[in-house]
Amino acid sequence: MTIKYLLGMCLVLLLLCPPVLASKQTEYFAVFMEGKKIGHAIQSRVVTDGKVTTTEKVSMQVSRADVPVSVNTTATSIETTDGKPLGFEVVQGFGLMTMNASGTVNEQGIVNMTVTSAGGEQKSTFEWPSGAVMVEGLRLLGLKKGLKEGLEYSAKLFDAGSMQAIEAEIHIGPKRNVDLLGRVVALTEVKTVFKLPRAGEIVGTSYVDRDLRVQKNIVPMMGMQIEMIACTKEFALGENDVLELVDKMFLASPEPLDNIKSAKSIIYHLSPTSQAAPLTIPSSDNQSVQQLKEGGVIVAVRPVAAPAGATFPYEGKDSNILEAVKPTRFVQSDHREIIDLANRAVGDTKDAAEAAKRIEAFVSEYIDNRSLSVGYASAAEVAASRVGDCSEFAVLTASMCRAVGIPARIVSGLVYVEDFPGRENAFGGHAWVEAYVGDRWIGLDATRAPKGFDAGHIALAIGNGEPVDFFGMVSTLGYFNIEKVIIEE
Questions:
Q1: What are 311-339's pLDDT values in tens digits?
Q2: Which CATH number fits domain 260-488: 3.40.50.80, 3.20.20.150, 3.50.50.60, 3.10.620.30?
Q3: pTM value?
Q4: 3-class secondary structure for the chain?
């Protein structure tokens, strides 16, 4: 599962660091991870009738247990020649599934957005984030500021893929001799610090020429780094290498965890593998987090039981919990087929805990093709295809819970596995669900039902299933080891 989010976050950060293009031009880039070419990027800019249209296409593919996983994104931004946003379109292809999101920005700063996928069409509106810029706005800001060493400035970058603005601090560094696939060129180093929601910071490094055109871009992710390097069209679109990432998605357990299902709690001692930013790990009803002075973290996982007698739908007024009942792009709880599936699963029970467990069991049986080939599907797509792995189980479970009024959110993190091809007694990337029952969030894991959620789950990110919600995975996994575990029976 984590490979999907890895690729998704790579795309987001690459698209937030576009090269500065001339009036009308197309540029090609090769995309590398772990030193292997895994894809390409094509970026173009056209000025017509007072409008600037910038298009960025990124395609990447890796292997997961010998199963190819591909992600393709085309992002188009439309702005005035002075950088005012007018509209955007993003087409995201996750393996077998494709999602199209487009929006226009009116004079009042209201965005009218349409999302189209195999699950149908969704329309919504939201306010344009104050001060946020897209590609042309960022280009003009860079031209205005220049490349004087030591210069620092900030920007708010709108990412159409996640429909939100991301704060960034830009630092102009010295000139360096940079290897561009055999060509050594003197370029200016530019570091961009991305302030990621609920995930701390990620620092990207770009190397630009005197015209501010990016020639190389480096983004660290999960203990690795992804590079985008300017090159010829032929090389960019040429054959890719095969990069197997399963090894990168597992952490060794310091000891076998016997009888994990009966464990009342498990305390994990995590130690950072570098002196980078502090580990940002979320707390929840099932997990408490203690930050240590030396940079380590103690995570205590104590699964909570659902209270008896709680009913649904949720009728409280907590805004955060109400948010977890609303439909989203990937969790389409208002979709007719999902509502029907939820009603079938829940039956005649009025007890919220029983309803949640019935949904968990239903999804476990309903997805009958546990395939690693799906990039990342929405709940409506999963309902139609009945194909996927843990992330598809999670979005469908959350969507069905929301469809009957049970607040639900998607959790991404690690789960203990006794045996996985080539791995024993290790923690691997996983996705599951937390549902709000009574007065607490309880864990649901349809992928592993009937065993379900237990103390072998370590949450690294919590959200609505949107790719941007899982930045926490990118900034934590790969940057720590599990040094010690303490099991409380």
A1: 999 999 999 999 999 998 889 999 999 99
A2: 3.10.620.30
A3: 0.81
A4: CHHHHHHHHHHHHHHCCCCCCCCCEEEEEEEEECCEEEEEEEEEEEEECCEEEEEEEEEEEEEECCEEEEEEEEEEEEEECCCCEEEEEEEEEECCEEEEEEEEECCCCEEEEEEEECCEEEEEEEECCCCCECHHHHHHHHHHHCCCCCCEEEEEEEECCCCEEEEEEEEEEEEEEEEECCEEEEEEEEEEEEEECCCEEEEEEEEECCCCCEEEEEEEECCEEEEEEEECHHHHCCCCCCCECHHHHEEECCCCCCCHHHCCEEEEEEEECCCCCCCCCCCECCEEEEECCCCCEEEEECCCCCCCCCECCCCCCCHHHHHCCCCCCCCCCCCHHHHHHHHHHHCCCCEHHHHHHHHHHHHHHHCCECCCCCCCCCHHHHHHHCECCHHHHHHHHHHHHHHCCCCEEEEEEEEEEEEECCEEEEEEEEEEEEEEECCEEEEECHHHCCCCCCCCEEEEEEECCCHHHHHHHHHHCCCEEEEEEEEEC
